User: Fold this.
Amino acid sequence: MATATTRSAGPKGGQDLSSETWLLLEEIVVSQRPRFMEVIREYDLAPPHWIALRALGEPKPMGELAKQLACDSSNVTWITDRLEERRLVERRSAEHDRRVKLLVLTQKGRRLREELQARLAVPPPQIAGLSREDQRTLRDILRRAAESVRADR
Assistant:
């Protein structure tokens, strides 16, 4: 994967373009944390619960979810217990190996995930206020980066 080495003429002096770009993207995303937290708390969820719901587009072994969440399997058990109590996920044995527990979204879990995704998809004013041309350019660039992330999974 190629990386940009163009130097920025910005306030950071010698900071490379890719680092500056990443830091700006991080600044925008992190600025939205309070809104993100407010929305997920309205549903009585903690961030790990929402991240798990997002990750469960398809049934997934608990161990794989632990890797995605970068946490210990015991943490995934706690997350799963909470989501299962609310009937948002179910544990099912994998057909290929009954020792492997798959996490599967229930209908209620899918509905909640869709509702949360719709609410969190509302762009912050910093993005919504950009021109349509800038929004399209930004979207296209981020889409290519996201496709690269997906290909690496």
Remarks:
- Confidence is low (pLDDT under 50) at residues 1-9.
- The longest strand covers residues 89-93.
